[in-house]
Automatic annotation (TrEMBL), chains A, B:
Pfam families: Lipase_GDSL
Gene3D superfamilies, A to Z: SGNH hydrolase
Molecular-function annotations in GO: hydrolase activity, acting on ester bonds
Protein name: SGNH hydrolase-type esterase domain-containing protein
Species in which this protein is naturally found: Stephania cephalantha
SUPFAM superfamilies reported for this sequence: SGNH hydrolase
Keywords per UniProt: Hydrolase
Length: 243, 243
């Protein structure tokens, strides 16, 4: 049975199988070695994620039917919605930063209890380009952005702190993206969601982080013989050692 | 638990999560409604597929641990390798057309026995652009293409015939692609594998065919409340009816 890598997060996870998306790139990278299971929920914050987690990752969720076998890694990628400004148009998504930390810890605890050996990677929210946010129709009435880069940074810091407490690897996407030239436009298409370049940054960070935790093409077995391993005169022979 | 759509095939399936790929596009299309499970094996013909099918789709395969619950559809997409010319460089992949038909029938029987209610879609091999094949390094020594469009057409016809006998929907990709202008270059990048345009043709055909078999965004339930369904003053209320 193939190992599974579960992507649990908000819209940036839900849309990760669009053209150039980081989720599809992961599925392609692990094409013969692991299944990438998409569990992205657009608009969700950690409060809603916690409300849904039993159904998403519990006994009837991923793996299903009491199973869930083979899950080797889970990415937990929330915060972009928690960090929505508390008194603006996306206020209903806002979660205070202290609750965000508590919720993240609870999500980690749930995953650890379900799969004690699993690799959990926390991913911070990305930075925000306010100009991009202001182009969104629902921000135009007030003229005030629903998200700010300072708030995203505070939640990124909180996420890194939870990862430290829990001893987990973390991808500091907020800082990583801001290292790139013209990141506001090159990496973000609407001030929040990724362009192909932004997607590629996250894809590479996830592959690197998984690799450091021994989840890589080098460590995972390939499912069934490769055609390059077939004996030209007796191709079926290659199956003998594997099946 | 989310329904699963399994893609079983050769390299055109294995690489279907590359940028612009038909598999990734399906996963994105069904992002909150179904899991798309990738089971592509580069270079495989129906003979090898049949040798591997118990491991791929059997009790320890997709779904795993005796499960396999929730599989609603399987695409079966072989023939491009079976149709390799029998006395040229890819001869080790060749399977005679009569055996191809028998093997396809056996694959269909296996899937029907495992999941009696599942939608099975047969996909014919794509057409071949010989010029594109001749640019491949391993065809340069002999100067003869390893695949021809006539052979692909014969296997496509055989695939359609098996679908008819078994009462299954079939995507006649060999004919469909050849309806497009400049299909040799617009749809195929090496005379066999798809460009983004070729991928998009197949993606749309699969969505259409699944839809006719009642596997669509209209019939599948959405996993968890959409953020547009949240009550602004009491977002968690939306979960009450679902969890």
């Amino acid at each position: 049975m193939r190992p599974k890598i579960v992507l649990f997060g908000d819209s940036i996870t839900e849309e990760s199988f669009r053209e150039g998306g980081w989720g599809a790139a992961l599925a392609n990278h692990f094409t013969r070695t692991a299944d990438v299971v998409l569990r992205g929920y657009s608009g969700y914050n950690t409060r809603w994620a916690l409300r849904a987690i039993e159904r998403v990752l519990g006994a009837e969720g991923v793996g299903g039917g009491g199973g869930g076998e083979g899950v080797v890694a889970v990415t937990v990628f929330f915060g972009a919605n928690d960090a929505a400004v508390h008194d603006r148009v996306s206020a209903f998504q806002h979660v205070p930063v202290d609750e965000y930390k508590l919720n993240l810890r609870s999500i980690v605890s749930f995953v650890k209890k379900r799969w004690p050996e699993v690799v959990i990677i926390l991913i911070t929210p990305p930075p925000i380009d306010v100009e991009g946010r202001l182009r969104e129709p629902y921000n135009k009435t007030s003229g005030l952005p629903d998200r700010t880069n300072e708030a995203a940074g505070a939640y990124a810091k909180a996420c890194i702190s939870v990862a430290g407490e829990c001893g987990l690897p973390v991808i500091d996407l907020w800082s990583r993206i801001q290292q790139l030239d013209d990141w506001e436009k090159s990496c973000l298409r609407d001030g929040l969601h990724f362009t192909c370049i932004g997607n590629d940054v996250l894809f590479k960070e996830v592959v690197d982080t998984l690799g450091k935790e021994s989840v890589s093409l080098e460590t995972l077995p390939v499912d069934l013989p490769l055609s390059s391993e077939m004996y030209p005169n007796d191709p079926l022979k290659a199956f003998e050692s594997q099946i």
